[in-house]
Amino acid sequence: MPSACDSLIEDIEDMVSSTDPTPNERQSARKSIVPRSRKKNESLINEELQADSLIPGTQKIWMKTWGCSHNNSDGEYMAGQLAASGYKMTDDPTDADLWVLNSCTVKNPAEDHFRNSINRKETKTFSAYTVQQIDRVVEVVDEAVKGHSVRLLGQKKDGGRRLGGARLDLPKIRKNPLIEIISINTGCLNACTYCKTKHARGDLASYPIEELVERARQSFQEGVCEIWLTSEDTGAYGRDIGTDLPTLLWRLVEEIPEGAMLRLGMTNPPYILEHLEEMAKILNHPRVYAFLHVPVQSASDSVLMDMKREYCIDDFKKVVDFLKERVPGVTIATDLICGFPGETEEDFQETINMVKLYRFPSLFINQFYPRPGTPAAKMEQVPAHVKKQRTKELSQLFHSYNPYDHKVGERQHVLVTEESFDAQYYVSHNKFYEQVLVPKRAEFKGKMIEVDIYEAGKHFLKGRPVEESKPFTPSIAAPLRKGEVSGLMQVNTHTNTCTPAYRYI
Ligand code: SF4
After folding, report:
1. 232 C-alpha vs ligand 1 centroid, how far in Å?
2. Structural domain of residue 123, as residue ranges?
3. Distance 100 CA to ligand 1 centre (A)
4. I want to staple 196 with a disulfide (CB 3.0 to 4.6 A). Which of 5, 349, 358, 371 is the partner?
5. Is 470 contained in some domain?
6. Residues near 244 by Cβ (< 8 Å), separated by ≥ 6?
7. Which of 68, 201, 233 to mutate to test the pocket of ligand 1 (most atoms within 8 A of CB)?
8. Which of 186, 188, 268 to mutate to test the pocket of ligand 1 (most atoms within 8 A of CB)?
9. Contact indicator for 428, 286 with CB cutoff of 8 Å
10. Chain segment 173-215, per-residue pLDDT in tens
11. Do 483 and 89 contact (CB within 8 A), yes or no?
């Protein structure tokens, strides 16, 4: 019968760095220790005081997250577990005893920020662990507090089956108390040749529908008014556990109170193709944003084949055309990679023509950057100046049209969820998840309000509140305070959480 700590013992080698003593060395060192009484003097008192300051769970932590909404969701869970264990989270990096940096290696900018931050901090110890281990953040930080380097780089398994991400009922601190980010699955079914995410997240592992519904229910009870679903490929959700995305979505919409909204996450074209009819119905639901992020990456079939994207451009067009026809006004956002290995001028022109055809209101343009260890890094590269030129040309095309001009004069309902970057406005979104800036009035936060659109920019609309219309409060509780831990009732105490880790020290 395996003991309760077998799973931890399995990767004990991950808990210490190569320079730390081995368990055998520790044991034999202990044998040579002769206990003796010491006279309490001033230096000992100082020593004890110092030791007190190293009690894990009493320090201030600054945490920074880069990357996609899945990474942000991981970051929220990490912050929640640390706070629930007694650590104090601070917004000021200079005030912190420890930094927890949560980055992804998928995109160069995120990784660069991460490296720069590490270089800025004079570290005595450096610990690392993977997305598979975010429920062990407290152990890692406890060890770091004691000056130990920790590496938790293995994969989590249960009876040989790889497990997905963290448990959904772990405590978390929402970056925005009004928005709950739920990762519905981790990993995907593809093996795109440029991708690093797959190395970190692995194969598809979906959360059961009941757990996801419960998470949504709990967030509405905690005053959330907007839910974002996220994953590497939401379209593939459920294929590993015998269900599918529409089944999950129909269950979730039953839980959404009036005045609250659900935003769907990124989906690749292949799996969503099978569910287009149902997806159109769901996107037309009044409490679901008519918004879908479908990354196409290139409009050239030969490039898509080299990327191993598992669809051709006609598949993507079928998804877009179908949804545009069945969901009036739907917003389709997409991603494009410029200068993938082997991309010819003709391939690139196909991409340009597709952007001219669809005039995507939201477009993420990435210059190709080879990620070490990926098949694409070994392919013959497009010269840097060509990649740069194509990225520039595509960006210019994107900035040459204004997708929102025709909306000026419309009356819309919008849900207000946050403050704008310049702190001048509140940010809200209309049914099509278009960003609408509204006046910063406290009574609007977390409410559905009615506005008249009076101005349109490249990425936003501006709305004037309709005076005779009252803000609509979703039938949900008051939101948690910023920094307050969600789901705290279900967490172990600090001592319990940490007990297994101490067994190995
Ligand atoms: S779908 Fe492709 S790009 Fe996305 S995570 Fe999977 S392998 Fe990576």
Report:
1. 6
2. 1-18+54-160
3. 26
4. 371
5. no
6. 237, 238, 274, 275
7. 233
8. 188
9. no
10. 999 999 999 999 988 899 999 998 887 778 899 999 999 999 9
11. yes
Distance CA(25)–CA(430), nearest Å, equals 63
Q: How far apart are CA 302 and CA 116, in angstroms?
A: 37
Query: Quick one: 431 and 326 in the same domain?
Result: no
In a domain, residue 71? The reply is yes
Residues with Cβ within 8 Å of 158's Cβ and at least 6 positions away in sequence, in order, are none
Q: Is 120 helix (H, G, I), strand (E, B) or coil?
A: helix
Using CA atoms of 115, 79, 210, 500 in order, give the dihedral in degrees to the nearest 10.
Answer: 100
- Mean pLDDT computed over every residue of the chain: 82
Task: State in Å: Cα 189 to ligand 1 middle.
Answer: 8
User: What is the reported pTM?
Assistant: 0.78
Nearest CA-CA partner of 237 in 282, 207, 202, 277: 207
The residue whose CA is least distant from atom 4 of ligand 1 is 232
Distance CA 232, CA 187 (A): 6
Check pocket membership of 197 for ligand 1, CB cut-off 6 A. Answer: yes
Residues 427 and 387 in one domain: no
Question: What's the whole-number mean pLDDT along residues 467-477?
Answer: 83
For residue 201, the ligand 1 atom closest to its alpha carbon is 5
> Which one of 160, 186, 205 terminates a domain?
160
Looking at residue 504, what is its pLDDT?
A: 22
pLDDT tens column, 407-432: 999 999 999 999 999 999 999 999 99
Confidence band (pLDDT; 50, 70, 90) for 502? very low
CATH of the domain at 319: 3.80.30.20
Residue to mutate (ligand 1; options 105, 189, 196, 197; most atoms within 8 A of CB): 197
CB of residue 268 inside a 6 A radius of ligand 1: yes
- Ligand 1 within 6 A of CB of 232: yes
Residue whose Cα lies nearest atom 1 of ligand 1: it is: 190
Is the C-beta atom of 192 inside 6 A of ligand 1?
yes
CA of residue 291 to ligand 1 center, whole Å: 20
CB-ligand 1 contact for 296 (6 Å cutoff): no
499 belongs to a structural domain: no
Ligand 1: atom nearest CA of 189 is: 6
From 183, 198, 337, the mutation candidate for ligand 1 (largest count of ligand atoms within 8 A of CB) is 198
Look at residue 2 and tell me whether its pLDDT is greater than 60.
no
> Does 12 have pLDDT greater than 60?
no
Domain total of the chain:
3
- 267 and 310 inside one domain: yes
What residues pair up with 418 in beta bridges, in sequence order?
Answer: 427
Is 391 domain-assigned? yes
- Mean of the pLDDT values across residues 327-344? 98
Question: Are 123 and 235 in a shared domain?
Answer: no
Q: Which amino acid is at 284?
A: N
| Residue 254 parent element (H or E) | helix 245-255
